[in-house]
Amino acid sequence: MSEMDKWLELLTGLVSPEEAEPMISEALTALDEFLQRDPRTMERVVDILNRRLSGEFNAETWKLMHDSLCQYFTEDLACLLYWVVDVENAAASRLHEVERYGLPNVMAFLRAVVGIFGVDLTNAFILWNQIPNNWRTIYRDVYFDRINERQHIKLRILKYSGEEVVIEGPPDSILSLGNELIFTSRLVGAREDFSESTIKLYLEESKELTKLLKGGKKGTPA
Questions:
Q1: Angle at which helices 104-128 and 17-37 pack, to 10 degrees?
Q2: Distance in angstroms (rounded) separating the CA atoms of residues 80 and 106
């Protein structure tokens, strides 16, 4: 297994904290030594990231940025940045985990990188690590069409590729689409292929929809 493969497993949560400890400790020590050798490290890294993270992101953005960082750093140090930013989790970083190593120069450097580029690094990684046609965000509009005197639903689906798909129609049409998606999901055939959080949310929402369809109180989306 290559070093990059090991880091990818770490970034995506496939490595236990015990297994990760030697990798993280070694990389942080190497970064501390690098910072001491080159006082302009912060300036150079900011320049690299500014160049590679400017403009519109696509599936190649992360790869180009990673290649540039590896040419300046090593692959381990580049991947350490992604680990600290926690590119799999847009709402967090691992700066608190770095503090216990007692490396003030490293901590100052990483705080600056996370503060300036954390969100962009996360977005670039997600685009690189996803199927381009996978959906990323859904925007919903549900309103009463006064001309046709019926409810109308409009869905805007944003894909990781940046492409947008629009689907709209009356509630019955959207419910039929939902039935098709449920049928398709059943073809997977194994519970293990779904995450626990997704299963929980589906069961909660389907319970509320069932209440509505049986004539009960209108469900409120979570």
A1: 120
A2: 11
Amino acid identity of 216? G
22-47 burial, b at 16+ Cβ within 10 Å, e below that, comes to ebbeebbebbbebbeeeeebbeebee
pLDDT band per the 50, 70, 90 thresholds, residue 220: low
- What are residue 51's DSSP bridge partners? none
DSSP string for 61-130: HHHHHHHHHHHHS-HHHHHHHHHHHTTT-TT---HHHHHTT--HHHHHHHHHHHHHHHHHHHHHHHHHTS
Contact partners, residue 37, CB within 8 Å, separation at least 6:
none
What's the pTM value of the predicted model, to 2 decimals? Answer: 0.61
Task: Please state the domain extents for the chain.
Answer: 3-128, 132-187, 192-222
The secondary element (H helix, E strand) that includes residue 154 is: strand 150-159
Cα–Cα distance measured from residue 47 to residue 43, given in angstroms and rounded to the nearest whole number: 6
